[in-house]
Amino acid sequence: MRIFNTLTRNKEEFKPVTPGKAGIYVCGPTVYDFIHIGNARPMIVFDTLRRYLEYRGYEVNYVSNFTDVDDKIIRRAQEEGVEASEISERFIKECKTDMEALNVRPATVHPQATKEIPDMIEMVQQLIDQGHAYCVNGTVYFRTRSFDGYGKLSHKNIDDLESGHRDEAHRLKVSGEDEKEDPLDFVLWKPKKEGEPFWKSPWSEGRPGWHLECSVMSRKYIGGTLDIHAGGEDLIFPHHENEIAQSEAANNQTFSNYWMHNGFLKIDNEKMSKSLGNFFTVRDICGKYDPQVIRFFMLSAQYRSPLNFSDQLVETAKISLERILNGAEKLEGIVAKNNGKELSDAEKKLLTEELPGYVEKFNAAMDDDLNTADAISAIFELVRFTNASTDTETSSTFAKALYDTLFTLSDTVLGIHLTRSAAEISDDEVAKIEALIAERTAAKKEKNFARADEIRNQLSDMGIVIEDTREGVKWKKA
After folding, report:
1. What pLDDT, in 10s, does the model give residues 284-322?
2. How many CB atoms lie within 10 A of CB 23?
3. Whose C-alpha in 29, 57, 216, 419 is 20 to 30 A from the C-alpha of 392?
4. What's the pLDDT tens digit per position in 4-20?
5. Confidence class of residue 367 from pLDDT cuts 50, 70 and 90?
6. Which of 182-186, 209-213, 431-435 is predicted with the least confidence, judged by mean pLDDT?
7. How many CB atoms neighbour CB 120 within 10 A?
């Protein structure tokens, strides 16, 4: 597998630290509200990376954190008059609910910042002892210029960065707020403010800086060198840049061998923001669309490409996904019928000579920097092949072999279910639909075509599409 490494700006062959194993760290959300649709993209993309590596035989240690102490969490807690921990625990639970809806598997470990404070204090002290950090009035800063490689991930020159901070440095100096040795130095530990949660440390009662949290949690749960560190491209600078500086300074070894970053998500070609009224939570969107349509939509573009979210594009994704689901449904119907026929010579030839080519095309796409767009194209080709290769005379053994292959690529690897969401239709609705279909069948037998058409239109108004086949009437949610 070749991965585009943000650090080198090249596609590189994936070679893990330990053969057969992969340690992946993905920056998770700050839990002060429901996750938004932008949060969903890295969750889905890197869940798919994990699934693919497991499919290829790797043992994956997948770590994704929850930032559960932050200014936004504290502010919301103060607004509601509750403890910050109540806010974070509430929205960790809600986040997990949304992740489950999107078929994002739980991480091997979901560490929480507040539960790792002792290890954070230990790393800060380690950096102070090594001369990479210093304390001023209870605040501990990382001495950025003590780390020679600063800027290597974002490809920024440290002198250019400093010139960009001159106005801010001048403002702080004039106001008397300037405590840093250098404007580029960043916070590792900060003293508490009135009403904020805090932990005791050698420097002050306070809490860790955001950048520090991921360095400590990734080291604890994966090790000194990660195989892959991933997240949205908005995290490249300063978050991931600062992680590298403090981790490599403390550990004296490469922090991560590969860096993967997904592209931005826009809403109707605009940046998502509450002020524009185009800020959507995953909960909002999943109330409008099946979560599997959202997952399919997110994977329909290569992860590094910018992705535009709009109703029209999601509707297109919905129609495309239907083609796959219909193909799977046809195969399931043949398997369920179980005609007991033996594999024919023609079917054996198709399984040995034709089918592997579609799997190889899928694997080649995924091996090329997780190109899920081309992988989905390979699945469409597979569905066309299965449709053309099966009919009422097809053996159930052949149909099952095709279905199992389609299931592995779509469901196991891409995380896209081959069955429609059962939650979309209640048992009462199913009973009503099937009663109407039975009435329509009877009307057609009696040549009462006007009534049959009325029932079809009634079902259509209910959002139900029916199809007359040789096996009987089939129906599905539109």
Report:
1. 999 999 999 999 999 999 999 999 999 999 999 999 999
2. 24
3. 419
4. 999 999 999 999 999 99
5. very high
6. 431-435
7. 23
Higher pLDDT, 314 or 424: 314
**252: number of Cβ within 10 Å:** 9
Please give the span between the terminal C-alpha atoms of the chain, in angstroms, as a whole number.
38
Q: Band of the pLDDT at 339, cuts 50, 70, 90?
A: confident
β-pair partners for 172: none
| SS3 track for the chain | CEEEECCCCEEEECCCCCCCEEEEEECCCECCCCCEHHHHHHHHHHHHHHHHHHHCCCEEEEEECEECCCHHHHHHHHHHCCCHHHHHHHHHHHHHHHHHHCCCCCCCECCEHHHCHHHHHHHHHHHHHCCCEEEECCEEEECHHHCCCCCCCCCCCHHHHHHHCHHHHHHHHHHCCCCCCCCCCEEEEEECCCCCCCECCCCCCEEECHHHHHHHHHHHHCCCCEEEEEEEHHHHHHHHHHHHHHHHHHHCCCCEEEEEEECCEEECCEECCHHHCCCCEHHHHHHHCCHHHHHHHHHCCCCCCCEEECHHHHHHHHHHHHHHHHHHHHHHHHHHHCCCCCCCHHHHHHHHHHHHHHHHHHHHHHHECCCHHHHHHHHHHHHHHHHHHCCCCCCHHHHHHHHHHHHHHHHHHCCCCCCCCHHHCCHHHHHHHHHHHHHHHHHHHCCCHHHHHHHHHHHHHCCEEEEEECCEEEEEEC
Asked whether 206 and 191 are in contact (CB, 8 A), the reply is yes
